[in-house]
Amino acid sequence: MANIESKVREPLILGDKTYHQISEDISIPVEGKANKWWWLAFGVSLVTMLWGVGLILYTIGTGIGTWGLNKTIDWAWDITNFVWWVGIGHAGTLISAILLLFRQKWRMSINRSAEAMTIFAVICAALFPGIHMGRIWMAYWVFPFPNQFGPLWVNFNSPLLWDVFAISTYFSVSLVFWYIGLIPDFATIRDRAEVAMRPARRWVYNMLSFGWSGNARAWHRFEEISLVLAGLATPLVLSVHTIVSMDFATSVIPGWHTTIFPPYFVAGAIFSGFAMVLTLMLIARKVLNLEHYITINHVEYMNKIITLTGSIVGVAYLTELFIAYYSGVPYEQYAFLNRATGPYWWAYASMMTCNVVTPQLFWFKKIRRSLIATFIISIFVNIGMWFERFVIIVTSLHRDYLPSSWGMFHPSFVDIGIFIGTLGIFFTAFLAYSRAFPVIAMAETKSILKSSGSQYKK
Amino acid sequence: MSTKKYWKSLDQLENTEEFQESAKNEFPSTSPVADLLSNEKLDEGSTNRRDFLKFLGFSVTAASLAACETPVRKAIPYLNKPEEITPGVANWYASTYADGSDYASIMVKTREGRPILIEGNKLSQVSKGGLNARVAGSVLSLYDTARLTQPLSGGTPAEWSAIDSEITAKLQAIDAKGGIIKILTNSIISPSTKAVIADFKAAYPNAQVEQVVYDAVSFSGTLDANQASFGKRALPDYHFDKANVVVGFGADFLENWPASSGYVADYAKLRSPKSGKMSKHFQFETNMSLTGSNADVRKSIKPSEHGKYVLALYNEIASAKGASTYSVGGELEYADTVKKAAAELLKAVGKSVVISGSNDVNVQTVVNAINYLLGNYGATINLNKQVNLRSGDDKAVTQLVSEMKAGSVDALFIYGPNPSYTLANATDFNEGLSKVGLSVSFSGNLDETASLAGYVCPDHHYLEAWNDANPKVGQFSLAQPTIRPLFNTRAAQESLLAWAGKPADYYNYIKSYWATNITADWNKALHNGVFAKAKDIPVEGEAVAPATLTYTDNSASAASAIAATKAGGEWELELYVKAGMGEGQQANNPILQEFPDPISRVTWDNYITMSPKRMKELGLNHLQGQEQEADVVELTANGVTVKAPVCAQPGQKYGTIGLALGYGRTKAGKCGDGVGVNAFPLISWENGVSHLENTNVTIKKTGEKYHLAATQTHHTMMGRDIVKETTLAEYVKDNKSGNPDVLLNTTNHGPQPPENVSLWDNHDIAKGHRWGMSIDLNACIGCGACVVNCSLENNVPVVGKDEVRRMREMHWLRIDRYYTSDMTEEKAEAEGLGAINKFHQMEDPSENPQVSFQPVMCQHCNHAPCETVCPVAATTHSNEGLNQMTYNRCIGTRYCANNCPYKVRRFNWFRYRDNDKFDFHMNSDLGKMVLNPDVIVRERGVIEKCSLCVQRIQAGKLKAKKAGRKVKDGEIQTACSAACTTGAIKFGDLNDDAMEVTTLAKDPRSYNLLAEVGVQPNVYYMTKVRNIENEA
Known about the structure:
heterodimer, A: mainly alpha, Formate dehydrogenase/DMSO reductase fold, 68% helix, 0% strand, B: 1032 residues, alpha/beta, Rossmann fold, Dimethylsulfoxide Reductase, domain 2, Barwin-like endoglucanases, 4 domains, 7-stranded mixed β-sheet, 6-stranded mixed beta barrel, 43 strands
């Protein structure tokens, strides 16, 4: 491959790094001691997580009645959170798999953390279909395992069952992909530990790196398996949220029963995933001094993707409205009119503002290259995407066919607490990860150090 | 043969002496344990390490085994199985419910000796197989933990014998001095009880023994008016099955009227449009009553105008009939409607009923005059063979209270009423009661009155006792015990007999009374539960009034009194009685407390009903919702002030309020205490007669808020074809009117019925049974008896007010009630109104809306959306067309409930049994006796829903199979269809052309609810036809 030296394009890694410096910069957070801010953040996250776990145990012990659900709205925050977290878990695999296949080298600075985020987000997501069950102790029944219950088998018609397969597959492939990428970097830390005479660390990272030798054959296989997994993961990026969307699309409830859902959900998932990557990366690059690796260019690239997917989502919203009008189905028409103007208009308005309006600001170069603006907008998108799921789930259910059953949903403190608890789980895991794992793919970034831009010739 | 020798031990090989010894004993006589224990020096010996470990191991194992033991639940088998009981097979006994306000001849279902369900007795010519929610729910009152378990003397438990001797001694002393003994009862319809009271009177000849009859909701005015008009103080019997025109004035004859169950059945007969004819029903009333909501034409009027409307109607009739007319004393808002009603009445001479719920003698006198002029006496109204259900005398009650206060009453026996709760002047009564030397209550609960009485001699629950009834002249019924008395209680009649010095054996007393006075065929009467004396039963076309009763026209004075009625104040109040709670006798019955009011859909409370328009003006919250609190106001009437929340009631006359009686009990028990406010003190007593109306009350905002728990918070159909409607005229022209075929547009095949555009394969529904249901929305009056019986049959838990407010009631069957709205699609189009405004305005019911009722249970869809989405196939389609729910398989994802277009699936949010947070009947062993053993009590975390009473289907199929025949029509009844007095709900096999339900499903009026969704339900509804002029 010929190196392309672009005069216009800025290099992907700034700061005239050497290979050693890259190892230093990325390994130091793992090797050094955490500062008090990390401990503070970790402590807060841990407490939040424990609070959430406590409430989950309370739910399991007492009943789903501790939530705000009712006879009309049987899913609300639980499945909203589920879809939201699954959506967030989309960016990682998209960045590492699809961008790998498209040979987008800028992905190398962010893919590691994006994938970690995916893993943690999917864990948070997978929690909800579990705990929302009335009898979680029977949850294993959703798996088609040989049993002696008589002629009982799972129901392959149910999208919820497809979810089980989709999410478990996605989770395992993402985990393997992520881990394989980590192996050479673990080996780097191991080697550095050997030099630094830290036998315990050496032992741990040696185990984690599966005794990576770094020879040419190992690298060759590493490259091959990365490609293979990327190929495997790519359809999964599309399939997971497609199937999640089918939970709704295959139903008969107006506002759920919509053929546009699969692409609309996938776009939304990438949209929210990138927003979350930005939220985290903007903090991480500051805290871990990674400004030279995660540059303003990265931010801009991701902002462009956000603008694209945000626009797709916006078009989907408008299409839904148009199709509702055009369908002539009174229930459908009312469902969408009610979304926008009914008692939950504020949720719809929040969704529209956060998801459709704010990303359009990224058309301005100043804004999409401003870290502060990006951070604020990424938070907006995160909030907006939560509301999107809330709007789809709750406003469709709360006024469906028979007005006699119409009602409202009011979350209980347990609903809110468990959601906050999953944020705690997510950040606890992410903070722990940032101290124990190399947050940037060292080996991969080294490969682009001298292939992008011309500054290395200086 | 091998010479090889095998041996077990060296001892055997050597064949020692010891071995020979031990070989003789198969079981060695000494065991190591016995050895160890028989060692006398055991205590002295030291335990070595091995022994210690053995002991340790044993102790730990023993202790943990003991801890693992499951709690013992004793199921005691019959030592000698009673002949009539086969475990698993229900026994049905005919009996009678009569509590002084409701009457129904009933069938009691018992399982293994426990009454668990009540249905109507079809043989009865009085209740006609019908029952209302209160009667249906009364089976749970049997298992009320608040029931008295033994007699009390001065508030402490006592023996019957001791109480008997004390009371007898006191009575003899009173008798000796010629004192006054009063027996305060409600309207007693039991001839044997009357005889017992007569015997009691006879036992104390020197004392002045007098029975005072007190009805909490009095018909005294009607009785007095009939006394004046016909010389007979009696309540007439109405024949709604012959009344082509009914004009009601505040008369809730479908729900709260003596013998209303029978009237409901009669009324429904003329409400079917099948023949092209229907009765026409006008209703003028203040509150929206169940009767008014079923009327074709309903106008809301103020209580102060009640008499004037009656008088206006009289004038119309009188002028047509050439009788004298009187001045009404003012303009009437709905004079046109009165004219129309009069015109209809005049077309139906002798085939109409005018009926008023007023307790005002003057109003009832004018009503009598109208009916007399219309020739209804002897045709549709029968005063000769009267209804005995109300005989209360308000004046006598007033007199009793004053006598008691004066201290002149020596002994008071209270059998039935609860005056300390229901009397407006309860404090006077209580004060008087303390001055009565001997006060005895027969109440089965320590209620407000009983707790003040000197002696409480608890009567049996009616399901434990013998009794009889004579609800109408010539109509008798028997009540028999369906279970041994649960507690140390005694029939009130036996107590009275004991104190009269007679053998306390009410069973033989009734038996001999019946043999002498009623019928010799005791066994048949007991089997049927009812007996009609042929000579006393009105026969077709029998002339009644003219032949035997002389009519005296008092209308002139009555009319002038009515015309002089002053206009009411800013607020007028009309008290009423709710379908579930009645007069509050069963306030501690959680199923009845959770029974949604048919009109307001509110549970667990009473509240002030007010027109939404007035509420908006006052700035009161007129919306309902789980977090939307009602405003509390202070209501002052007759100097009594109560605080109650306000609930919007479309159809309530502007400037009036309603408030239900029967709430605010203080000594009902854990479920009933403190629920709502007591409205009885607001009853006004004028001229010694009690009135539920008060024409001048005041309302004051308090700023306080209160949660009301309603099962339905949205009241209009939003322009959707949910309850399909048409008018009689349109129906006669086209029997599909209001019910056009549902067609969906397809791309290539034009309009198609929804079943042709389904993605799913059809179930094989043509073979075998296909259970289905037909619900005639014309016949359904919304009374809700089916809801109560569904809950009892299927062990549906009570969840309590707070959970109902959170929209988590568990009812498998609900009755949706819809109001019409002023805003319609047509009107919006005509006005060019945008969709947003249109729908917002559609949410508001009209000021005086038309009302529709629609029972909704699981629709048992052939393409059930719930079945496809369950990940574990817990809900599946049976090959008999049922959508069945496998509770054991359910993991509780609730996806099915979300995907149900009818929202009939219910989730067990908590464990509702054995849970102190849900301290209702499923939390006590006594209350759990009402559970139906055929239906499982669902665990927390699973979905449940209507099964079309699959246990009854199975039982019916088994019965038919054993008899080697097909299932007969009507043989299998679901709990709801069996409870339906009007026959609106029909159940059967849709694959059997001989069944009524199959015919009904093919009727042009039949439709599937939400057919356009394409789920193909097995439940059919029939278009509601209103007998109104075609507005269009």
